[in-house]
Design a protein that fits this description.
This protein is an all-alpha fold. Helix content is about 80%, strand content about 0%. It contains four helices and no strands. Helix 1 (about 5-35) runs antiparallel to helix 4 and helix 3 packs antiparallel against helix 4 (about 90-114). The longest helix is centred in the first third of the chain and has 29 residues, at about 5-35. The chain is elongated. The N and C termini lie close together (about 10 Å).
Length: about 110
Amino acid sequence: MTKDPLMYLARRDAYAAFLTASDAEGAVIWRRLEGRYDDKEAALAATRDSYAATQAAFNVVDVEGVGPVEQARALMEHLRAFHRLNEVPDAAWSAYTAARADFVTAARAFLARN
């Protein structure tokens, strides 16, 4: 069966958009925990916006139901857990980084097969 170049590009772009959104959300969490926002309202607005962007990007991956869905879900679970903390242990960031790497590896493998 021949690969569909449009599906490949759509999936690649969806995976990249999810990574970009999750990276941005991780940065917002980091800045919030470091106290880098001017006030609580600014931190809350940034958190809301980044959370919504990551969820929207995940939905594109999730709705198809194939590919690195489970890895994307695991990455989101790390981010969601960080939102409930006032301090994230270093080991948690390492686990997040590993989950991100797992998503990238699974996305690359799926794109290579399809």
